[in-house]
Design a protein that fits this description.
By secondary structure, this protein is α/β, with parallel strands linked by helices. It has helices at 3-12, 22-35, 71-77, 142-150, 169-183, 198-207, 221-240, 252-262, 280-287, 311-320, 332-336, 362-374, 378-390, 395-412, and strands at residues 39-47, 53-56, 67-69, 84-89, 101-107, 126-127, 132-133, 153-154, 158-163, 188-196, 211-216, 244-250, 290-292, 297-305, 326-329, 349-350. It is built from 14 helices and 16 strands.
Length: 413
């Protein structure tokens, strides 16, 4: 709101505004409004097809404390779906289920006037990930250290964690979230759980430092898709502000299943009972991941289920298999033999990883990969990798030690 409008509102509230700075005037108006029966509101904006909106205050979901946003307010401030809105709400009455927003004091934590000048996500230029998100944080972070070596992750990565049932995918995702929070506290971390068990949601909330948004299996498919769309729109708004965002999704398979149930039927049914139109929204979700030139980044790491015995899951995975630029493959046989993390070090990898690995470390990393590939056995390769990681303090020490050992073997030969 511009200064003349603020002063006009201050006059109506009988606030002596002479000599006040703009920020002081906003605070005075808010405090006076609260005394008049108004209340403050803070939440994520959802805009309907009719172009009016609601401020969702209950972690992206509908709640009793939500507020109504009029069409004229959305047009005046240039509001977009996923914006974080702070403001005041008029006192409600029996005819209004959701009381309307009276004033907006900030949009995404900034002056509302700046919202009209921000770029649109679709107009930003995507480039390859070129800044590393390190997973290693200490000697005992074996999962993170293994990921750094076999499938490095960069800001703007579009990654798939391919996992059969009971291979430890949730634990791997948890370690990834913990590593990002420890090594990159500037990154805005969102963990989205779709169709998961409630106890897993609680465990994730207690284990990671970030936003955990969940739609559990006892909720309808419409709720799954609604929450996922609002989360990705929130992530886009943050990227427009120049921030780095990481969205960890568990899982893209269950999200696609939800769209298959909730989306209108197109009449074109693929094998497994998948409606072809149901695959576009989750592809759009995953396709939002990108590194922005001279700006922020949106990293999406999504788990994909395989070997479930479901033809539908197989079709969904085949549709998404070529869309990512990083893939971490988990192996059920390794998990059955209690070898954790159950990562397949040969089948996992990252496209254009030379942009993420420093030139002096590239020969060492690629030398290690050749050694693991030459073992011709996933179990031996992963066991050898984990043993080496546990015997060293850092990945750098491990790579140097492996290179020396390989050089000695070549010399003896």
């Amino acid at each position: 709101m511009k200064l003349p409008a603020l002063r006009e509102r201050a006059g109506l509230l009988e606030i002596p505004f002479q000599g006040m700075r703009k920020s002081e005037l906003v605070d005075a108006i808010v405090q006076s409004s609260i005394k008049e029966g108004y209340r403050t509101v803070k939440g994520i904006l959802e805009i309907t097809n009719e172009n009016y909106g609601f401020v969702r205050t209950n972690n992206f979901m509908q709640g009793d404390e939500d507020a109504f946003v009029q069409q004229i307010t959305i047009r005046t401030y240039g509001l977009r779906r996923g914006d974080l809105i702070e403001g005041t709400v008029r006192p409600g009455n029996s005819s209004n289920k959701f009381p309307p927003v009276a004033t907006i004091t900030s949009i995404n934590g900034k002056d509302p006037e700046l919202a009209l000048k921000r770029p649109r996500f679709r107009d930003l230029t995507p480039i390859y990930p070129n800044e590393r998100l390190y997973m290693e944080h200490g000697k005992d972070s074996i999962t993170g250290r293994a990921i750094d070596l076999v499938a490095p992750i960069g800001k703007g990565q579009r990654g798939l964690i391919v996992s059969p049932p009971k291979a430890g995918k949730t634990t791997v995702l948890k370690h990834i979230c913990q590593s990002i929070a420890a090594n990159n506290p500037e990154v805005h971390l969102i963990c989205l759980l779709v169709d998961e068990r409630p106890e897993e949601v609680t465990d994730m909330e207690r284990s990671i430092k970030g936003d955990v948004v969940a739609s559990t299996f006892d909720m309808p498919a419409d709720n799954h898709t609604h929450v996922a769309e609002l989360v990705i729109e929130r992530a886009k708004r943050l990227v427009e502000e120049g921030e780095d965002v990481v969205v960890v999704l568990d899982s893209i398979t269950r999200l696609a299943r939800a769209y298959n149930l909730a989306a209108p039927a197109s009449g074109r049914i693929l094998s497994g009972g998948v409606d072809s139109a149901a695959l576009y929204p989750p592809k759009r979700f995953l396709g939002a991941a990108r590194n922005i030139e001279n700006g922020g980044s949106l990293t999406i790491l999504a788990s994909a289920l395989v070997d479930t015995g479901s033809k539908m899951d197989e079709v969904i995975f085949e549709e998404f298999k070529g869309t990512g630029n990083m893939e971490l493959k988990l192996d059920r046989e390794l998990a059955d033999k209690r070898i954790f993390p159950a990562i397949d070090p040969v089948q996992s990898g990252t496209r254009n990883e030379d942009l993420l690995i420093t030139p002096d470390m590239q020969p060492l990393v690629w030398g290690l990969r050749r050694v693991l590939a030459n073992l011709n056995n996933i179990e031996r390769a992963e066991a050898s990798l984990i043993k080496g990681l546990r015997q060293t303090k850092s990945n750098e020490d491990f790579l140097i030690r492996s290179a020396k050992k390989a050089a000695q073997t070549d010399y003896i030969a």
